[in-house]
Design goal:
Structural class of chain B: mainly alpha
Oligomer: heterodimer
Radius of gyration of chain B: 20 Å
Structural class of chain A: alpha/beta
Mean pLDDT of chain B: 93
Low-confidence stretches of chain B: none
Strand content of chain B: under 5%
Helix content of chain B: over 70%
Number of helices of chain B: 11
Strand content of chain A: 15-25%
Number of domains of chain B: 1
Distance between the termini of chain A: 29 Å
Strand order of the largest sheet of chain A: 5-6-7-3-8-9
Shape of chain B: globular
Largest sheet of chain A: 6 strands, mixed
Largest sheet of chain B: 2 strands, antiparallel
Mean pLDDT of chain A: 89
Chain lengths: ~220, ~270
């Protein structure tokens, strides 16, 4: 359904400078079946949340709800004190999707420049690319990259323009990723990471939410 | 998302499209086809030489143009939505409708670019054959940019809600309907079908989009040389010539292109990204 509209049956989100999720249920599109249900979390600025769970546990659905790409069926989400669907909120949220979220014929630097331009930042793409462990003037095509390098591009897109909230879906645990998250937390950025392979993320982020079949374990 | 970001998105989308193998392949295949036509036409003379270039040029923009338009329109959203790319753009602050509009603009620009390359190729072929620049063929190429833009936008409108193949088929059906209403109107006006059908024909002609017919195509058809681009219409022994479109037909079809474009952007707002 329309991602820009506030949910009809969701309660008004209370003000919050980080992320506040209250009794969240998200249904599969066009069905009554819940993809995730009973989710509550409170992640203030400068704190992190690691969402873990097996394939199909609902990590990506929750992350997509946090960035306003899917609408809550019940409950409320507040991001930076507003609804995550609002373009003004979205511009302050750095989102790094999972897998291979770029057209194969796109150049690495173009992906980061584009996200930066949408977010309205003046920061040059090379800054984010280098922080993510890539060359600052990386003009390779996405189709020529290994999956691990694509994860770095996704990270670079997420951090370009110094967002106030960082949401990463299945980032690989590179030293650069850990450093980026550590620096973000130190700068009072709210950080959410979804991963099936937690590794050192729970210790880095401080709080863990484990999902099993769409509900907190 | 400001206009700078929108412009950058169009440019990057355009560059990404141009790198696709099938787009490059279709463009090159059109040029190879023109080279073959040039060789064939070089062995002919006079009006036959002109007709060979014009009828084969018309075939190129018909078949090649439809293939490109269906590919660009049908594939406008599906793959990049399921990969998460459109979600990345929207999650970064672009509105879904703006993303849809930008992608449509980039695809229309690609279509125009391919037609420009083919159009220049046709004019160069005409020059090489010693005929000078071919104005009627240039006008026909422009007419087919409009027809293919209609197919592209119709495909994209459905591609925002269903899969690329079904969307492409829908785009083709829209063109078939647009050509059919124009043919039906010509049949009626030239007495090839009963006046009893007038209310039906006038109704569909008033409502549906109309395929744009160039003066060149009408002339070739009149002389029986149009080839696949305009096969003879023979009803009970009466040969019907589809006349060239008027300005009002062009405006009407442009309006339909806008309607389909608006539906495509609206569809992107409603689909899960």
């Amino acid at each position: 359904m329309a991602a820009e509209r506030p949910p009809k049956d969701a309660a008004a989100a209370p003000p919050h400078d980080g992320i506040l999720v209250t009794d969240l249920t998200v249904r599969y599109q066009g069905t009554a079946e819940a993809a995730i249900t009973g989710i509550n979390c409170d992640v203030p600025p400068g704190r992190g949340l690691c969402i873990t769970g097996n394939e199909g546990a609902g990590k990506t659905t929750l992350i997509r709800a946090l960035v306003g790409l899917v609408r809550p069926g019940r409950g409320a989400i507040s991001v930076l004190g507003g609804l995550p669907q609002g373009p003004a909120v979205r511009q302050q949220v750095g989102y790094g999707p999972e897998r291979m979220p770029f057209p194969r014929g796109m150049r690495v630097i173009d992906a980061v420049r584009l996200v930066g331009a949408i977010r309205g930042t003046d920061e040059r793409a090379d800054v984010a690319l280098e922080r993510a462990g890539l060359h600052g003037d990386d003009r390779r095509l996405i189709s020529s990259l290994e999956l691990g390098e694509v994860r770095r591009v996704s990270l670079a897109c997420a951090i370009t323009g110094m967002p106030r909230v960082l949401v990463l879906d299945d980032p690989w645990e590179y030293p650069e990723t850990v450093e980026v998250i550590r620096a973000a937390l130190a700068d009072a950025v709210t950080v959410v990471v979804g991963t099936p392979d937690p590794g050192g993320f729970p210790a880095l982020l401080g709080t863990t939410l484990s999902l099993v079949d769409g509900a907190p374990a | 998302m400001n206009s700078t970001a929108a412009t950058l998105m169009v440019r990057i989308d355009l560059r990404t499209l141009v790198r696709r193998r099938w787009v490059l392949g279709a463009t090159l295949a059109g040029l190879v086809f023109l080279a073959i036509v040039a060789v064939i036409a070089a062995g002919q003379s006079g009006q036959t030489r002109a007709d060979t270039l014009q009828s084969n040029g018309a075939s190129l923009v018909l078949i090649g143009g439809l293939v490109v338009a269906v590919g660009l329109g049908g594939g406008a959203f599906s793959r990049d939505a399921s990969s998460g790319y459109l979600g990345l753009l929207v999650g970064s602050g672009a509105t879904p409708s703006r993303v849809g509009a930008v992608r449509l603009v980039a695809r229309l620009a690609t279509l125009v670019g391919i037609f420009a390359i083919w159009g220049v190729g046709m004019q160069l072929t005409s020059l090489a054959l010693g005929r000078g620049l071919d104005g009627p063929l240039a006008v026909h190429t422009l007419a087919w940019v409009v027809n293919c833009a209609l197919v592209l936008c119709a495909s994209a409108a459905l591609a925002s809600v269903i899969g690329p193949v079904a969307a492409g088929v829908f785009g083709l059906m829209v063109f078939v309907c647009a050509q059919a209403v124009v043919n039906l109107k010509a049949d009626l006006d030239q007495g090839a079908i009963s006046r009893g059908s007038q209310s039906f024909v006038d109704s569909v002609y008033s409502v549906l989009p109309r395929a744009i017919v160039s003066p060149m195509l009408a002339d070739l058809q009149r002389r029986g040389h149009a080839g696949p681009a305009a096969p003879d219409i023979n009803i009970n022994g009466l040969v019907v010539i589809v006349p060239a479109s008027r300005v009002i037909d062009l405006l009407w079809t442009l309006l339909w292109i806008l309607i389909f474009a608006a539906l495509a952007t609206y569809g992107v707002r409603r689909r899960q990204l």
